[in-house]
Amino acid sequence: MMKRRIHFGIWILAGGLILSLALAYATFLPDPAAPPTDTEVGLDGMLLRPYRGMTVGDVNKDLFDADAYLTHFETGSVSLLPDGRTLREFVVVAVNKEIEIAPGVMFPAWTYNGQVPGPTLRATDGDLIRIYFKNRGDRPHSMHFHGFHPASMDGAVLKQLVPPGGDFVYEFNADPAGVHLYHCHATPLTQHIHNGLYGFWIVDPKEARAPAKEMVMMLNGFDTNFDEENEVYAVNTIAFHYARHPIKVRQHELLRIYLANITEFDFLNSFHVHATFFDYYPTGTQPEPRDFTDTVIQGQGERGLVELKFPYPGRYMFHAHKTEFAERGWMGFFDVEAAEGPADEG
Ligand SMILES: [Cu+2]
Q: Ligand 1 centroid vs 303 CA: distance in angstroms?
């Protein structure tokens, strides 16, 4: 009898312990309906909160401001030529600079104007472009632009490389309208591009595109241990930047993303957005979109225009649909504010 009572008591004690543990666990679990805090936003998004899928802390904004880069377009010094055409002049300096690609992760970059990607250069179809290129790096570099230009302006062969300390002036017409790239064309190309010498070259059509909130997204990656594979992936260089600092847009507002893939070592990259679809214009050269989709694949050097609107307010992920890239930094959020009033979080 006594034994049975002891057993019964043990069972009561054990049951109580299990119950209180369960209660304590439930109490400290994050509320799945609550908006994520700054440190909680990650690949897990709002679903698997206890998993921390991203970086902790923030990068030094003085080294590179990914928010400013997103919407900043350099249109150069503008003057009028005797024939009535517009001349746009840019100064681009190649310099070595250590950049921060994730909090505390430094990368010895080769840069145009001290940033990776280089500045987004923008002109209108038919403008005359003059670029004063100064190589202040420690090895030969060049600027190779996608688009029409004479052979002497191609920046691709050995004799067109600009030696350290050297200068060169590129001059050509902005042509054709679309979203293009410029990058160094010195060999080994893998090294010169991957180390950071690339940027957007945007040529607007003579008849302006519809008004929109415009931004650039350069899909890039970084090999931090020199094994010719990327350890960190990003959109605009900093892993998870737009996850920590979501891009603010408005419901029903037309968004235009100039999207390009410059990622080395991987065959393909991709762009996927949640809760909406987009029109996709490869290279931005044709008036009609090729696709109406929520995912697009780009090979290296491929680029295009993405035009979209969010029908509902709230927070929505965009990321590489190659999940490994997303988990290593290529993921962000749009915060869509309601057309009237604040956005519905979640
Ligand atoms: Cu180079």
A: 21
